[in-house]
């Protein structure tokens, strides 16, 4: 499993390409000039949006490869075409929760024997730091760790890209739950609102991921997406919006106890989401540890001009 030689184009397979982050990652890879293969699963059936998305990737230059998770040999054949495999399968409870399906990818990569790097579906909180997380949201982290352990036990070279709140879910709504749009009059502030949180535009996460694929500096490493200008407290995020609109919102501080008070009466996806919000905004799980320059995406790849959250919020004006 030698490294990719510099100057050679990287051949990469994306699994979960039609998903929320997957489609951005495919486009970023194509722009970067990677030879991009996209896994097309026969189970797609009548899902017209996914079919049209796959065809749009093909038009942009991606190559479609048919393989199924229920056919191991088809997965092995797909792996044999590429140097790098990137999985973007969903790990959130309110969408589909498919983390452990990646164990089938690990088996196929192991048998194929030619893959020089695997990037499993990560892109959020670092699961190796979330052993204490609240159930049922903890399941996401436990399963991601199970996949990591399988990768490392098989001796497959890897890169784990972690560490930021997706802007579309956390920025436009000023991190309010159950909406994706900015509040008009009132805003809930988590605790005192002074815990540092990391926000990132999903396209930037895709661009950073694209840069890591054949970078020797990121081999068998965790890369943290923590762009310095986007490390903000909840209060700072709200103030950016207030400055842009010239309108001050009425703020209500929610204590940790109140925030979690009804958790057991909620549906499982809501419980998981609430737990994740708690770890981010009350515990500060994205910023409670030091990250060196050699492991932080924006310092590794200063050529990616990442979107700052004031620019992001201007879309909503």
TrEMBL record:
NADP recorded as keyword: yes
InterPro entries (UniProt xref): NAD(P)-bd_dom_sf (IPR036291), NmrA-like (IPR008030), NmrA-type/Isoflavone_red_sf (IPR050608), PCBER-like (IPR045312)
Keyword set, alphabetical order: NADP, Oxidoreductase
GO molecular function: oxidoreductase activity, acting on NAD(P)H, oxygen as acceptor; pinoresinol reductase activity
Keyword match Metal-binding: no
GO biological process terms on file: lignan biosynthetic process
Domain named NmrA-like: residues: 9-313
Name of this protein: NmrA-like domain-containing protein
């Amino acid at each position: 499993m030698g490294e990719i030689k510099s100057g050679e184009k990287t051949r990469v397979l994306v699994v979960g390409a039609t998903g929320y982050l997957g489609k951005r990652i495919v486009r970023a890879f194509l722009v970067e000039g990677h030879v991009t293969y996209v896994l097309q699963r026969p189970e797609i059936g009548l899902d017209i949006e996914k079919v049209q998305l796959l065809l749009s990737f093909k038009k942009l230059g991606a190559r479609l490869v048919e393989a199924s998770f229920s056919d191991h040999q088809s997965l092995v054949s797909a792996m044999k075409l590429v140097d790098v495999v990137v999985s973007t399968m969903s790990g959130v409870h309110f969408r589909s929760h498919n983390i452990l399906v990646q164990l089938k990818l690990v088996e196929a990569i192991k048998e194929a024997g030619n893959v020089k790097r695997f990037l499993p579906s990560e892109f959020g909180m670092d699961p190796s730091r979330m052993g204490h997380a609240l159930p049922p949201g903890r399941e996401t982290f436990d399963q991601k760790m199970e996949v990591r352990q399988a990768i490392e036990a098989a001796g497959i070279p890897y890169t784990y890209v972690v560490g930021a709140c997706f802007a579309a879910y956390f920025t436009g709504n000023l991190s309010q739950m159950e909406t994706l749009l900015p509040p008009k009059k009132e805003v809930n502030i988590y605790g005192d609102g002074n815990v540092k949180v990391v926000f990132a535009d999903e396209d930037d996460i895709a661009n950073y991921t694209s840069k890591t694929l054949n970078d020797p500096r990121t081999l068998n490493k965790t890369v943290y997406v923590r762009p310095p200008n986007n490390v903000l407290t909840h209060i700072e995020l709200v103030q950016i919006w207030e400055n842009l609109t010239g309108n001050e919102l009425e703020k209500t501080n929610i204590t940790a106890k109140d925030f979690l008070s009804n958790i057991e009466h909620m549906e499982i996806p809501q419980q998981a989401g609430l737990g994740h919000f708690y770890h981010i905004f009350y515990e500060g799980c994205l910023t409670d540890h030091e990250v060196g320059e050699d492991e932080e995406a924006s310092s590794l790849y200063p050529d990616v001009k990442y979107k700052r959250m004031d620019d992001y919020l201007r879309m909503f004006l």
